[in-house]
User: Fold this.
Amino acid sequence: MRYRVTTLRDSDESRPSQAGPRRPLDTARLAALITEPAGFWRPVRVVARTGSTNADLLADALAGGPEGEVLVAERQSAGRGRLGRSWLSPAGAGLTFSVL
Assistant:
């Protein structure tokens, strides 16, 4: 598999040093970049905000969600890290996602 490096936002607004609000991720473009018809990574779901992408996908898995589902969050408010540490990810601050 070849990996492509590209921006998911098509203007200078995506640059971390740029002040001001950033446009939301383009869900269709993100899905097109990381999925292939016979590939593993599917489906791709982008949400504006969540408590935890891991918690959301755990609930999906328990409900029979598909293996390979990717959940991307613009903003995450209740992330859980190592040793029980909590963290948050403001919109546009990083790439926050989980894979089932």
Summary: Residues 53-62 form the longest helix (10 residues). Helices lie at 27-34, 53-62. The two ends are 20 Å apart (CA to CA).
